[in-house]
Structure formats: structure tokens, C-alpha cells
UniProtKB/TrEMBL annotation:
Pfam families: DUF2304 (PF10066)
Taxonomy, superkingdom: Bacteria
Protein name per its UniProtKB record: DUF2304 domain-containing protein
Keyword terms of this UniProt record: Coiled coil, Membrane, Transmembrane, Transmembrane helix
Coiled coil: 86-113
């Protein structure tokens, strides 16, 4: 019964990810990561006895501890990935702001030069 509930919950999550991807609420860049995660969740829910044996083989007596360990590692990896993406976006924003300021200065200089030519004529 627990396995059925786990499978239903992970299938619901997979459906949400597909829905968000179709409606463009989740961009393709991140959709693949979440689709793989949802599919892994469905497979894990379907293979609970195998996960139990694998956890015991690793020396983990209580399988939910193994699942939490994998989840924490995944969340940390996701946080590192998001932090790298945020750092990259921040750097791009800084560069664009600097380029905009230079272009604005050039435009103001050109306007002043054009006004100066008009006044001298």
C-alpha cells in the first residue's frame, strides 16, 4: 500500500512538471532536470524493495535514512547549480549595466556636440 501511494505521488509530481513545461512556466533549461528527477522518483517508488536491499548492502539499516541522504545530496547539488547560474546572471547584468552607461554617455556627448554645432551656425 505504501509503495502504491509513493508511486501515485511521484506520478502526480511528474504530471505537474510536464504541465509546467507545456505551459512554459518551467523553461526547457530546467525542465529536463526536473523531468529526470520526477522519473527517478517514480522508479525509486516502484523499486522500494531493491532500495531496501541496496541500503542494507551499504550498511544503512533503515532505508528512509538512505532516501533522505540521497535527497539531501540532490538538494545540495541543485543549490550549487542555482548559485552558479545566479552568479553568471549577476555578472551578465553588471556587464550590461556598464555597457548601457557607456552608450548613454556617448549619446549625451553626441547630443551636446550637435547642440554646439547648431549654436555656432
Amino acid at each position: 500500500m505504501n509503495q502504491l501511494v509513493a508511486i501515485l505521488i511521484t506520478l502526480f509530481f511528474l504530471g505537474l512538471i510536464v504541465s509546467f513545461t507545456v505551459t512554459q512556466k518551467l523553461k526547457d533549461r530546467y525542465a529536463f532536470l526536473w523531468l529526470v528527477t520526477a522519473i527517478a522518483g517514480v522508479l525509486a517508488a516502484a523499486c522500494i524493495p531493491v532500495l531496501n536491499r541496496f541500503a542494507l548492502w551499504l550498511g544503512i539499516a533503515y532505508m528512509p535514512t538512505f532516501v533522505f541522504l540521497i535527497t539531501i545530496i540532490f538538494i545540495l547539488a541543485l543549490l550549487v547549480r542555482q548559485t552558479m547560474s545566479l552568479s553568471n546572471q549577476s555578472e551578465k547584468m553588471k556587464r550590461l549595466t556598464q555597457e548601457f552607461a557607456v552608450m548613454e554617455k556617448k549619446l549625451l556627448d553626441m547630443q551636446k556636440a550637435a547642440e554646439g554645432q547648431r549654436d555656432s551656425v
